[in-house]
Write a structure and sequence with these properties.
By secondary structure, the protein is α/β, with parallel strands linked by helices. It has 2 domains: about 130 residues, Thiamin pyrophosphokinase, catalytic domain (Rossmann fold), CATH 3.40.50; about 80 residues, 3-Layer(aba) Sandwich (Rossmann fold). It has 5 helices and 12 strands. α2 links the parallel β3 and β4. The radius of gyration is 18 Å and the shape is elongated. The chain starts with a strand and ends with a strand.
Length: about 210
């Protein structure tokens, strides 16, 4: 099962949603519900305190969405975390987060941290943050194949834990073999594939992968 979650991030950073429209169910988060409606995508569920919409906009959301989960602004989880927690309970194999970048930096960092949660819980689900210029996800130790995407040719590998051990990059412009990369290092920023696919592997730690375009 695939689940798409659209939050209320700046519209100029949200990618074209049409390619994803019929590929999984849709959850709107706060103002992201309104964005879905405006893009003729029917939200299956909605989460949020809806403090970022007008009274008229909220009335439209209530008219269009059957399952509306409304919360008080004062709570322990962000609206995005509430939606993601629900998605994780559905045993989805892929969750895409849109509208999760731009605007307030605290929201951005919080959303990036949410990518780490299922890795720590050893859950077999791929969670991606996707905007117009980036695709971001997190992996635990192992070996992974990565395919070329024409528009997202730059790769960065960023340690989430204090260090990532045994990092090996194959079929990349700047290869590595069994390298230890500490947190805070910029060694693995802005790499590129030299073939249609490559592999990255590491033996210990948690690694964030960022695919970007100019």
């Amino acid at each position: 099962m695939k689940i798409n979650i659209l939050a209320g991030g700046p519209a100029n950073l949200i990618p074209e949603l049409l390619p994803y429209r019929n590929d999984g169910m849709w959850i709107g988060v706060d103002r992201g519900v309104l964005t879905l409606i405006q893009n003729d995508i029917q939200p299956d569920l909605a989460f949020g305190d809806f403090d970022s919409v007008t009274t008229e906009e909220l009335a439209l959301i209530e008219e269009k969405v059957t399952e509306l989960n409304r919360f008080m602004p004062e709570k322990d989880e962000t609206d995005m975390e509430l939606a993601l927690n629900w998605a994780l309970e559905q045993n989805a194999d892929r969750i895409r987060l849109f509208g999760a970048t731009g605007g307030r930096l605290d929201h951005l960092f919080a959303n990036i941290q949410l990518l780490i949660k299922p890795v720590l819980l050893d859950m077999a689900v791929l969670i991606e943050i996707i905007d117009k210029k980036n695709i971001i996800y997190v992996k635990s130790s192992g070996e992974y194949t990565i395919q070329e995407i024409k528009d997202f040719k730059y790769f960065s590998f960023i340690p989430v834990t204090m260090e990532v051990k045994g990092l090996t990059l194959k079929n990349f412009k700047y290869p590595l073999k069994n390298h230890t990369v500490p947190i805070g290092s910029t060694l693995c920023i802005s790499n590129e594939l030299i073939e249609d696919y490559g592999t990255f592997s590491f033996t210990e730690g948690i690694l964030m992968v960022v695919r970007s375009k100019d």
